[in-house]
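ENTRY TYPE: paired fold submission
RECORD: A
CONTENT: sequence, then structure tokens
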Amino acid sequence: MSVRSFEQVRSSLEDILFEIQSSCTDCEWFISSEKIIEILGIRREDYYKILYTLRGEVHQASRAAQGFKETQADLLVKLLSKILKLEGLEHEFARAGVYFDDSYLEELRDHLRELVRSKLEKHELDRELLLLLISSTKRFEDAFDSYFDDKFNLERLVSNGISEFLERKSILPDYGADVFLKNYFFRILNTKVFLLREITSEYRDRAYYEIFGRFRHEENKKKKKSHSRRHSRVESEDSEVRKHREFLGLSEDYSKSELRKKYKELIKKYHPDINKEGLEMTQKIIASYNFLVMRTG
């Protein structure tokens, strides 16, 4: 292969990126090996020799013999790095908006995590809505998930976050970069890579305290303790259990079905949608019900 100047190398890289951008349709693209060979001015034999000798990439190289699509961009970057003897091509591809390596995706995840936390930090809890959702679900986690969906348009939040990220990194959005990153986000949402409940856990704890007047971890301890005696009721109930039981109007030997029935009766009577003066009473009913559910297992 002939020795090429730095200007020629840069020009070839820019031509390849332009070719890829020109073929982009909703973040999908393809560039043929023939086109790459033509742009680089390299002998076909040398091109395929380098392609098939990429360490640990033999299988991928066989599949890319005819050309590369967006899912094979990492291999194309490795190939061009070898041929052009250039480092940092991942950043060139990212700035062109056609490929993002793990470092960019990790940075995007961090940016979106902080964006969600920032929005929650500034958010004022709608106690009435959360109470309504709690009264219609068995688990606080499920109620809060519904609350989050109602109060935060996650799709719009993510779209705005991605736009900020692209602008900050000087990445062109014109060739489907925003579409690619949005699709990527919703693929990883609620996986261990981006677990939304974990990200919102601090605010969940604060919301729980505002509603019930105690911390969630205290209830979890009580729940674990009660689980060990699931099959035997405590011979003599403590004062706190008695307080909540008597508040709901239950006998000492109440059953789970009686607890649920009494809860539904009281909620129907005092819920703010029915009784405008019933918000405080509804909060107490929910708190007593949840306490007894956790205590009885």
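RECORD: B
CONTENT: sequence, then structure tokens
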Amino acid sequence: MQPRVQLLALAVIAGALVQGSYAYYSGPFLFWGLSELKDLQTPGALAELDDKVLRDLYSNAAAVVIFLRNGTTKLSEDSFPAFKRILDKYEYVYSPQQMLGSNPLDYNVNAEIINLVGAPSQQDVELSALFRDSAENYGERKVLGILANQLEEPHVLQKREAKAREDFSTSTTPGSPTEEPEIADSKYDVPGKVILVVSTPPVLKMLNDSDEVETSYVLSEHTLATYDARERESKLIVTFKVEDSTKLTLKFRFDMDSGYWSMSKVDVFAMDTKSKDGAKSLDTTLELEGKAPYAPLGASYACSRQLVFRNGTTVLTLENIQVQPAMEGKTKFDSAWDCIGFTTAPILSGLFVTTIMLAGLTVAIIAILDIKPPNRFESRTGKQLTFTVQE
């Protein structure tokens, strides 16, 4: 086995990130992708990479992508052929250290963490495809990839150990990958960063050009959401469970400009996890029909109407939405801008009727005020009053 493959076999990637908290992960670590890595010396068996050097790598990279998996399956050339081809193309460094002195998310605004679950072949396809997408977006040899193990919080481990002692009938097969948690609701949030809520699950409809058969997906189950925050554009990334061999991801794009945010596009990414080369069954951008949701930064947007995002025969519908990005640490919606403005048809009708009634009342009051009573009155002792009327 070649030295690079031996190094690859020592690294283990880990999975699910706890939402809204610090990214808990441990080594060994595998760094690749940046051209600066060729000048970085590989540490010895017990040595650690210099933390200042790592901080410089985080800061100089256009983006940092941390891949995590909590499975116990070791990496090998047979199980991860696509990732092996990536390592053959880029410079990489392996470090046996168990912890990093600094968090990459603190030094790069384009840093994100991606869960990898399922069988090794599925993880290989997802890892390779997502890293290629990052390289296309930010530039070749400008993206730093990091491979690490998940380090769970102590109280989570204690709860799992207690549950295992209580339930003797539950057992797991050693080496089997842990499934990613499935959430059966229509609330997609990264606490402190973004919240998107719809009343019913989103519906994605696609027309197969080959046989002209429409496929409809009700996206009722999703996994943990992630948020990619940038200066001019941010993305809420939500992955849905569709089929055993298909992984469907929606990327809600938020444009930030002049103190306002707007959401006019959604990227749809579908990948066949059984394909060895990471083939994409769908990769398109849908645009909203009509006026895009928008609000000032620090405010949410609410709409009871149906929002329709479309690109040709691919259509995504959202019902009764409320959304807010760039929440800056908040966990609840701020005051909402509603898509149904003040000048709706019922309100205009009411104002019209009220105006007519006020006009009639004004004429009546003016007519009453115009009545002039006589200034002289008859009496028993006085002369009878005589009025001359001229036509």
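NOTES ON RECORD B: The chain has two domains: 23-150, 186-338. The mean pLDDT is 77.
STATUS: closed
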